[in-house]
């Protein structure tokens, strides 16, 4: 039986992308075109894995009022759907694309609160998934009112069952989750600064922060740095990747693609350099498209050679 991955999204979203060339704050802005996609970090990670042919399951919370866009997406991509429905409607996050100025503005809503009973239902689903899934990716923000310990509890429970857990989140829930020592984390620079409580102005500062996390017992770390690429760490190894200069349509989900590619690299038994290359090629693959879709696997594999890889330490 193939090693299976499950992603958990406590706060999914419908990504409402609107194109507004020369978007101006405080002005009347006219929308050129719009597109709605299922989103939220764990949903995106699952979508990228599925596009690559990797079996994947999803869970978390969906508002009962607007599940159809998610259900049809999961069916189309062959994703096993184990979402728990809660009263209300899943949030719509607005992504304003200003292509002439190469800028994307994210307006992310707080999301649907869930009750202790809902959380207990999710725990039951996760317990069930743990019977035949080896990897769990816990991704994204938590809705307002969620206890800050939610990720820490999930990480601890899954670790007790011997599962590989990847955590990609932000704020206090991420900080507490990191304390529970997931196998891997993928902060972007802002999230790493928030986590360490200090500004990280250069590579040396980022590497020092990464070392702190390794010393605390995190197995693997990927720090994504937008157009500047990413830094990957495992044990004493440090690898920096940089993408080629490409035309970017949307960066939404590029970090989630990095998580998907990294997990797939590990599933394939690649070394850190191989995982870093595949993860960065996944991110690169998403940039030309709006919505959580990868180009065909052969084209992603080919683009691995376009990623500039620098070994910092081995
Ligand atoms: N403008 C860009 N040009 C080239 N590559 C990019 C660009 N933005 C992102 N990338 C690639 O995607 C990776 C992840 O992007 P980023 O650091 O923006 O993640 P993120 O902040 O977690 O994003 P998200 O939360 O939207 O998933 C980067 O490490 C880089 O390889
Ligand atoms: O509000 P969160 O949970 O931090 O982020 C949500 C989100 O911005 O993350 C994905 C891109 O990574 C989008 O699909 C989604 O809208």
From TrEMBL:
It comes from the Bacteria. InterPro entries: 1-PFruKinase, Carboh/pur_kinase_PfkB_CS, PfkB_dom, Ribokinase-like, Tagatose/fructose_Pkinase. PROSITE patterns: PFKB_KINASES_1, PFKB_KINASES_2. Residues 11-286 form the Carbohydrate kinase PfkB domain. GO terms for molecular function: 1-phosphofructokinase activity; ATP binding. The keyword Transmembrane helix does not apply. The keyword Transmembrane does not apply. Keywords: ATP-binding, Kinase, Nucleotide-binding, Transferase. GO terms for biological process: carbohydrate catabolic process; small molecule metabolic process. It catalyses: beta-D-fructose 1-phosphate + ATP = beta-D-fructose 1,6-bisphosphate + ADP + H(+). One of its GO terms (cellular component) is cytosol. Belongs to the carbohydrate kinase PfkB family. Catalyzes the ATP-dependent phosphorylation of fructose-l-phosphate to fructose-l,6-bisphosphate. PANTHER family: 1-PHOSPHOFRUCTOKINASE (PTHR46566:SF5), 1-PHOSPHOFRUCTOKINASE-RELATED (PTHR46566). This is Phosphofructokinase.
